Amino acid sequence: MKKYIILTVVSVVLSYLMAKIIFMEYKSDKVIALSKTGDKYYFLQLGVYSSYDSMLDNSSKLSNYIYTNNDDKYYVFTCISKNKENMNKMESYYKESGFDTYVKEFILDDNELSNTVSKVDLLLSETTEGIGELCKKSIEKYKEG
Would residue 59 count as lying in a domain? Predict the structure, then answer.
């Protein structure tokens, strides 16, 4: 009987030590996201302006754009894409038209926008013409939301 008690105690202690060693391997301060909260979008920024009037004057050549006001500066965006190669095409198009461009990445969770931008990306990946019109379509859906 004494033999069984000693064997049980030794088994419990060994199990505890093995569990502790295993859990120490997984102990980490890093947080890992288990779900995706949105899609990555590339926005083509065409300028930053210190006043609303300045932004309107400099954006008058654009047929369709959105802007944000952050820290008393106005940021103008004209294209949205989920595809980096397509964004490079759009950026080249606007640079050739004389604009200074910057590509900004944002994470957004909007299914309708995602569907529209995916369709525009598909069209844009198959052509090098009509980029301005495709940019207009990609930004229109964002303006609606």
Answer: yes
Q: Output the domain CATH number for residue 64.
A: 3.30.70.1070
For residue range 41-78, list pLDDT tens digits in order: 898 898 889 999 988 888 888 878 888 888 889 999 88
Structure tokens given for 102: 């910057």
Helix (H) / strand (E) containing 26:
helix 2-26
CA dist., res. 78 & res. 15, Å (int) = 62
85-110: buried (b, 16+ CB within 10 Å) or exposed (e) per residue? ebbebbbebbeeeebebeeeeeebee
pLDDT tens for residues 81-125? 888 888 888 888 888 888 888 998 888 887 777 888 888 888 888
Tell me the DSSP string of 89-141.
HHHHHHHHTT---EEEEEEE--HHHHHHHHHHHHHHHT-SS-HHHHHHHHHHH
- pTM for the structure as a whole: 0.64
> Total structural domains in the chain?
1
Domain that holds residue 80: 39-144
